[in-house]
Amino acid sequence: MKIESRIFNIITIFFFLSAIVYGLWAKEPVGTVALILVGGLSLIIGSYFSFVARRIEDRPEDNPDAEISDGAGELGFFSPGSYWPAGVAGAAAFAGVALAFFHVWMIVLAVGFLLIMVAGLVFEYHTGQGHH
Questions:
Q1: Phi/psi of residue 64, each to 5°?
Q2: Sign of the C-alpha dihedral computed for residues 36, 40, 42 and 46 taken in this order
Q3: H or E segment and range at residue 96
Q4: ∠ CA 55-56-58 to the nearest 5 degrees?
Q5: Does the reported pTM lie above 0.85?
Q6: Contact 88, 122 (CB under 8 A)
Q7: Can you tell me where the transmembrane regions are (predicted)?
Q8: Quick one: pLDDT band at residue 130, thresholds 50, 70, 90?
């Protein structure tokens, strides 16, 4: 993760320098603000990767002398299949239609459906404290 954080931090510096040069050269505020915001977003990602890199142990791909067998083993839990993403997509589409027609009752219903679907997706494999 250290390499990824360095990449994003270099991209952040590039965007901030580009914003300065663009702002002085073009004197156009919208593009300057857009470059500053993109730099801020890449700063968020780079900072997150830096924090994660401090908390986890080095991965085999971070070591240039690593062998292929160093990366063997369990990689984590991956969901075998879920219907919740389809529900989230349907609720988001319903929310989009509700916002397009701006019917308040539909917006309230859509937000309710969306919250239920997102909660179902997030807590799909949560079994609680006593069930581990």
A1: -70, -20
A2: positive
A3: helix 84-101
A4: 135
A5: no
A6: no
A7: 7-25, 31-51, 107-125
A8: low
